[in-house]
Structures are given as C-alpha cells and as structure tokens.
Write a structure and sequence with these properties.
This protein is mainly α. The protein contains six helices and no strands.
C-alpha cells in the first residue's frame, strides 16, 4: 500500500476587479492616510488662504505640498527646472481644496462617529427594550447587527473618502507637479 501525497498546485492570487482599485483603498495604511487628510483638508485650506492673502504664499505652498505629499501622494514635489507655484496657483488650489474639504470632512466625521457609536451600542442603549431593535430581542443580537452594519457602512465610507481625496489630489499634482 502506498501513500500518496497531495501535490501543491500553485494558485493565482485573487485580485479585485480593476475598477475597484479606483474606489477602494489599497491598504489600511492608505485608508488611514486618506482619512487623516479628510479631517485636515478644510482647516488647512482656510489657513492657506489666509497665508496667501497676507503675502506669505511661499509658506502656504510649502504647507500644502507637505500635506499633499504626506497624505495623498508621496511622489509629489516640484519638478526639476520648474519654479515653485505662484501665489495665484496656490490660492486657486487652496480654494478648491477648501471647497472639497467640506463634504470630505463631514463624511469622515460621520463615518468614524457612526461606526464608533454602532460598535459601542450597549453603552448608549444598554437599558432599553430590544424587542423592536434590529437584531433583537437580545442585546447580543442587537449589538451584532449594529456592529456588522456599522462596519459595512464604514467600508463604504472609506471608499467614498478615497474617491473624494483622489479628486483633491488632482489639483495638487497640477500645482506642484511630479517629483524629479
């Protein structure tokens, strides 16, 4: 009697549909970076507008470039032979980024707040009747349903945050160009 061993058949790694790469963050680190930018884009844009209007456009440009490089695209930088962006270009980028920062900030704040609230459901609604709640009549069922739903909603919001920050990255690439 001979023993046969199973042969290891190499399998291809499953890849997400190419269209999903456009919408979904590639990693948890990218999702965290994009979320951080979503939270700081509006205040940073307002600060940059103030700096440009008070004659400190080079400071605003350095600030915007550092934030865009850190949170959006590490390859951003002033190309070789290209001058730093002027005050008008920095102001235009700051105005656009500020306008896009409003819905991005609201979405990120709501996503994180709602997820935290759903994951800590027993703390908020611990002494209520669960017979009519989703997942009821027990606290464990209600908490499980709210946690799973909250995490699914959070995943969708992270995709939307990536899309909005991708839109914010385009003017940064135009204003600062690729690094050399």
């Amino acid at each position: 009697m001979t023993l046969t061993t199973a042969r290891h058949v190499p399998t291809r790694a499953r890849r997400a549909h190419p269209a999903l790469h456009r919408f979904a963050p590639n990693s948890a680190r990218e999702a965290a970076r994009r979320s951080a930018y979503a939270l700081i884009a509006l205040p940073l844009g307002l600060l940059s507008i103030g700096l440009v209007l008070t004659g400190r456009s080079s400071r605003a440009a350095r600030l915007r470039l550092a934030a865009a490089r850190r949170f959006l695209d590490p390859g951003l930088g002033v190309a070789a032979g290209r001058n730093a962006p002027g005050a008008l270009r920095v102001l235009r980028y700051a105005l656009l980024d500020t306008a896009l920062g409003i819905p991005t900030l609201l979405l990120a704040g709501y996503a994180y707040g709602n997820t935290l609230r759903n994951l800590t459901y027993p703390i908020w609604y611990g002494s209520t009747d669960y017979s009519d709640a989703w997942g009821g009549p027990t606290l464990a069922g209600v908490w499980a349903v709210h946690s799973i739903g909250g995490l699914a909603f959070f995943a969708v919001c992270l995709c939307l945050i990536k899309v909005l920050t991708d839109v914010q990255a385009r003017p940064a690439r135009r204003a600062f160009g690729p690094s050399a």
